[in-house]
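Format notes (please read before filing issues)

Several people have asked whether sequences and structure tokens are stored in separate files. They are not. Every record keeps both together, in the order shown below: the sequence lines, then the token lines. Line labels are part of the format and must not be stripped during preprocessing.
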Amino acid sequence: MKSEIGNIDRFPFGERLCSYAGLVPSTHASGKTVWHGGITKEGSRWLRLVMVEVAQTHVHKYDTSITRAYNRIAEKRGKKIAVVAAARRLLMCSYSVLKNKKPYYDQA
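Then the structure lines:
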């Protein structure tokens, strides 16, 4: 994963890293109307693939706040959408660990 991201300092905040991985929803706007679609799939497909696989393993193996969010989303929107949301949350955690050089602790 680190080799695919490169220097973490090129991303000013975690949302930019998620956008680079293509794990953010697409948006289309016309006037006052805004539509949100599926993920953009732009950027590094390898990073996106790895993060989705990591998320699938994580939600079945650990009981964390990410797993609980996955379960909530899976009930409402389906497992595929929930695993992408979990991948995005895990990437945000990874960004924090790499940027702050401190280990991750689940606050729940």
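For reference, the curators noted about this record: The chain has one domain: 2-100. DSSP finds five helices and two strands in the chain.
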